Amino acid sequence: MGKVIIELQDIVKKFDGQVIVDHLNLTIYENEFLTLLGPSGCGKTTTLRMIAGFEKPDEGNVIINGKIFNNLPAYARPINTVFQKYALFPHLNVLDNVAFGLRNRSFKFLLSFFNEEELKKEIIQEKEQKGQNNKKITKLDLHKKINEKIIEEAKKSIELVKLSGFENRKIDQMSGGQQQRIALARAIVNRPQILLLDEPLSALDLKLRENMQYELKEIQRKLGITFIFVTHDQQEAMTMSDRIVVMKDGTIQQLGTPKNIYNEPQNRFVATFIGESNIIRGTYLEKNKISFMDAIFDCMGYTFNDNEPVDVVIRPEDFDIIPKENAKLTGTVTSCIFRGVFYEICADVHEMEFVIHAYEEIEVGKVIGLNVDPYEISLMKVNENE
Amino acid sequence: MNDSYKKLAKPYEIWLYIFALFPALVMFALIFLDTEGINLSEASLTFGNFSQLTESSTIIAFVNSLKFAFLSTLICAILGYFVAYRLFRSKFKNKFLILTILILPMWSNILLRIEALGNVMQPNNIITDILSKIGIHIGIDIKGTSVAVLIGLVFTYLPFMILPIYTALEKIDPSLEEASLDLGVTHLKTFWKVIFPLSIKGIVTGSIMVFLPCLSGFAIPEILGSGNIVLIGNVIDQFFRNMNYNIGALLALLILILILGAIFLVQKVDKEGETLL
Ligand SMILES: Nc1ncnc2c1ncn2[C@@H]1O[C@H](COP(=O)(O)OP(=O)(O)OP(=O)(O)O)[C@@H](O)[C@H]1O
Ligand SMILES: [Mg+2]
After folding, report:
1. Continuous segment of H or E residues that includes residue A149
2. Residue-wise pLDDT tens digits, B115-143
3. Cβ neighbours, 10 Å, residue B29
4. pLDDT, mean of each 10-residue run, chain A (386 residues)
5. What superfamily in CATH does domain B60-269 come from?
6. What pLDDT does residue B1 have?
7. Is the pLDDT of residue B259 over 80?
């Protein structure tokens, strides 16, 4: 992992006495694509707003680039946001919206943003082309050049989100999905160190959304920006993130790579929120031996106390359907639904409903045998509160 | 359903026909007539009334009106914006109460208010009396000056400016301001680039609501100007008092056309009538 860029230290945020974010600790690295994933109202937006500087944490510290940022106003942070509700300026057209961030910055900032030396080189080149002998660069020359550059950058950014040709449209003449992409362009154009994205793809149709997911990932890689991405959509989180933070009620349930979170959920909430799961109560007999549903299975990679009760998680696609004669588990099929690539089968196994994904249709009422490979079995500590 | 609601508007429609449209038509007819008072029996057709438009007294009064209306609108716009903005920014829970307090004077009779204001503008009024009892001897004597008229106009019409500006400000999505700050733009610049442009609607609506009564009113200049300041409203008033309804109607219609033009302008700027509450 690279350098630490953001550190959230023991953050607590309350609204009207109600705890919304509860002792949150999180370290985010440079160049990382981190996703906050969780059900509605779990505090994702609130967490982003504290990083952006729109809310102050009641306790704890927001540390960015090693400095405590708690009291730094939003405009002074090297962060841009794509807002959940777009927040585009209705009195400006598309181009002016995208250029807004650069246009209203100080001259000094813009000089370093566009690299003063390069600007001067370009100005001199242009003067030579025009055959002007006067090589002196005035402030006016620089201002003009910067304005040109801003428009150029804004247009590039608009192209990036595939909205070229819409530069002069008014905001209210754009569709929801287009507005969302403008919001994206408006943030990216500033080349922030950190980009916060609050469900930036929620208004797009599937095709465009998949395209944009790919584009976003590309942008992130190309520009080297740290992305903090919020979504409800676990599929989206899985495909895009380097790491995922699963949140619930303002606390982190699990933090890890998409694979890690999918294959080794740490509790029932994560197991059911990310993908579908069959969760069965079992007993950890000894190393690599687990018993559930009156049978003993091999497992790997987990350590608990001998004879400790555990929760066993098996994903629907991890079951193999085998003849019932040589199976440790058998069940009666209660339904079989075609889902496109696979069939979703519900089976009654030991009076528990299992969900199984299979590639062949199986008729309802048939008794099937189930097998599961040792590495497909994940175990979680039992938490009585859930 | 819709139809029965339309029927509810009927009485008002009839009211408008009788008391607004019909008199307006009569006024229009009067322009081209020479009548003795409102007695139509000895009326004769004439275009002579129009010569009044080029009389210097009319022009001076008209220019005066424009001047006063323009100045008071400007002052109201600046003061009104400050008040509306302050209220908009305040963390006060019950902003509606504050607004009501601001509007409250509008519910008392305008003549009473103006007379009272005129009284304070003269020496030896109730306030100087009270102040002198505790040893402070100040007093102003500005009644009859343009300043007095201007103060009266601003004092009377300021609420009409505050309300639409405040409404326009309240309608600005707070996330726009956050977006601007997020893009690295400071608070002051955010005001000029986001808040102010989005509240211009309110200023335009408010300006017209102040400008028009200032332009056509006659009570305030008459009372506070002590007759020294003659606006077009006073001229019209004079003609009607002298039973010269023809010229009175002509000048009044001129003002009416200005008002219609202004309403048209408001509709252009504020299509949905958002700022009109
Ligand atoms: N300004 C506020 N005042 C009071 N309560 C708030 C405020 N902002 C958020 N909340 C509450 O905090 C909780 C978390 O809100 P937040 O917006 O962070 O959720 P979220 O995870 O982003 O949800 P969603 O996925 O629906 O956007 C909610 O219960 C919400 O009602
Ligand atoms: Mg949210």
Report:
1. helix A139-160
2. 888 888 888 777 778 888 887 777 778 88
3. 14
4. 89 94 94 93 94 94 92 92 93 95 93 91 87 80 93 94 92 90 93 93 86 87 91 90 94 94 91 89 91 90 89 92 89 92 92 91 91 91 74
5. MetI-like (1.10.3720.10)
6. 52
7. yes
- CATH number of the domain residue A229 falls in: 3.40.50.300
Better-predicted residue by pLDDT, B275 or A180: A180
Domain membership of residue A261 (yes or no) is no
Angstrom distance (rounded) from CA B152 to CA A55: 45
Q: Which two tokens stand for residue A327?
A: 């199976």
Do A282 and A169 fall into the same domain? no
B194: nearest CB among A80, A89, A190: A89
Within 8 A by CB and 6+ apart from B257, the residues are: none
A143 interfaces chain B, CB cutoff of 8 Å: no
Same domain, A200 and A300: no
Q: Does B194 touch chain A (CB under 8 A)?
A: yes
Q: Is A72 on the interface with B (CB under 8 A)?
A: no
Counting Cα atoms < 13 Å in the Cβ hemisphere of A301 gives 11
Residue B207 has pLDDT above 70, yes or no: yes
Is A72 in the same domain as A184? yes
Chain-chain contact of B181 with A105 (C-beta, under 8 angstroms):
no
Average pLDDT over residues B27-48: 79
Given a cut of 70, whether residue B273 has pLDDT beyond it is no
> What is the total count of domains within chain A?
2
Question: Residue A87: which of B179, B197, B198 has the nearest Cβ?
Answer: B179
User: Whole-angstrom Cα distance, residue B173 to residue A194?
Assistant: 25
CA of A50 to the centre of ligand 2 (A): 13
* A247 in contact with B, Cβ within 8 Å: no
Note whether A289 and A250 are same-domain residues.
no
Other beta carbons within 10 Å of B88: 17
Domain boundaries, chain B: 60-269
Question: Atom 6 in ligand 1: which residue has the minimum CA distance?
Answer: A15
Interchain CB distance below 8 Å, A83 and B178: yes
| Helix (H) or strand (E) segment spanning residue A82 | strand A79-82
**B contact test, residue of A88, A98, A100 with most B CBs within 10 A:** A100
Residues A19 and A163 in one domain: yes
Rounded to 10 degrees, what is the CA torsion of A322, A327, A331, A337? -20
Identify which of A87, A109, A190 has the shortest CB distance to residue B176: A87
What value does the mean pLDDT take over residues B196-223?
A: 91
Residue A183 DSSP code: H
Of all ligands present, the nearest one to the C-alpha of A232 is 1
Whether A283 and A245 share a structural domain = no
**Is residue B277 very low, low, confident or very high in pLDDT (cuts 50, 70, 90)?**
very low
Q: Which domain holds residue A364?
A: 276-381
Residue B12: HSE in the Cβ half-sphere, 13 Å Cα cutoff: 5
ipTM score? 0.84
Q: Is A43 in the pocket of ligand 1 (CB under 6 A)?
A: yes
CB neighbour burial string for A152-174, b if at least 16 within 10 angstroms, e if fewer? ebbbebbebbebeebbeeebeeb
> How far apart are the C-alpha atoms of A300 and A295, rounded to whole Å?
16
Q: How many CA atoms lie within 13 A of B158 on its CB side?
A: 21
Domain CATH number, residue A326: 2.40.50.140
Predicted confidence at residue B86, as pLDDT, reads: 93
Q: Do A222 and A140 fall into the same domain? A: yes
pLDDT of residue A284: 93
Q: Is residue A94 part of a domain?
A: yes
Q: Do A91 and B182 touch (CB under 8 A)?
A: no
Q: Any CB–CB contact under 8 A between B182 and chain A? A: yes
Give the integer Cα–Cα distance in Å for A320 and A345: 12
